[in-house]
Amino acid sequence: MTFEQLQLIPPIMKALTKQQYTQPTPIQEQAIPPALEGRDLFGCAQTGTGKTAAFLLPIIQQLSTQQARPNGKRVIRSLILTPTRELAIQIADNAKAYGSFTSLRCGVIVGGVSQRAQEQLLAQGTDILIATPGRLIDLMNQGFVDLRHVQILVLDEADRMLDMGFIHDMKRIIAKLPAKRQTLFFSATMPPEIMSLVNSLLKNPIKIEVTPASTTVERIKQILYYVDKPNKLPLLIDLLQDKSITSALVFTRTKHGADRLVRGLTKVKISAQAIHGDKSQNARQAALNNFKNGVTRLLVATDIAARGIDIDELSHVINYNLPNIPETYVHRIGRTGRAGLSGVAISFCEDEEIPYLKDIEKLTKQKIPVIADHPYPMTMEKPAPAAPAATQKANKASRAPSREGSRKPGSEAGGRYRRR
Ligand code: AMP
Prior knowledge:
alpha/beta; Rossmann fold; seven-stranded parallel beta sheet; six-stranded parallel beta sheet; 14% strand; binds adenosine monophosphate
């Protein structure tokens, strides 16, 4: 299918050509026609599928073909709620790009920055408002936001908004919207809470499910290193000798872990910055910009901070820690191999992460190929699963972190994991 067949208006077609999009993605093919007709939509899709354009293009088309100022002032005609600041900024960047040949105005309301500029934005009026729920509620409580003219509501990454505890804010915001509206609802997963929200908010929705999980996984080269925890940094430094790793998003489990890793890399003059919830919005944005512009080679992130980060041409994703939720692995590695490009996902697995690896492989129905021949093979045999607690303790006690001691390529040290 082509974008022409979706009957998009010339200003949008021009913007898509400028973006060098040649063909709609599956979710765009399925979502754009009903959304243009004004239907409610329930999209089960995650970042990397092209879902942002799937909701933005119909919004831009519908709004730009209407009169912009029904009562003399520009009013909010579409509200897009999204869980994180980064995601909000990215949606706004996309909206500006796709709407660059229309006269629509789009604004962003996020926490972590001064609210003054946001008050001004609201006073001047905007057609499309992209917001995180917390700050929007703050501004609503202060009387700065008028949502009475909203025609199209988007809930983006609804499952993540629930996870982050935004449900009450979301409900309070939605209560201020006209009942007669179009709602476009996107969620990567469909737990019961999401289904009840869908049932209460959407009217006769078109349901679209795209499952990039397996297709993404197939396109991406995955490799796994078994390595002891203290050797993860030396192994990463060793792998980074490979200059083909031009830009890598590195995932750690914790914020502290992200900072520690950045310090370790900086010491050996590998450019890296961390992005996580403890950083100010400006620091996060600066880190993201530096990474996008190639100033830093590595961006170290936690899952929440990285959710929705939109980076083109990411050559590598590195799981410094494996996630304990297997779907998160699929989301993470889906950051590379975007829009038809191939990518590489490197994972480090320490002893305690082996159960996570098993869950991941069960979900993806694939064994991740193991690189056995590396300078820091895992030194210890894993205790047998049925070993009594006392033996496990003894094993753990003997698992003293070794530095150079583990440099035994080809030795039996890596044990059974390396011989899968
Ligand atoms: P999203 O799932 O919305 O985060 O989009 C993932 C990435 O795909 C973004 O970098 C978009 O710019 C890009 N993208 C979206 N639609 C298309 C398309 N039709 N052709 C090529 N790239 C696209």
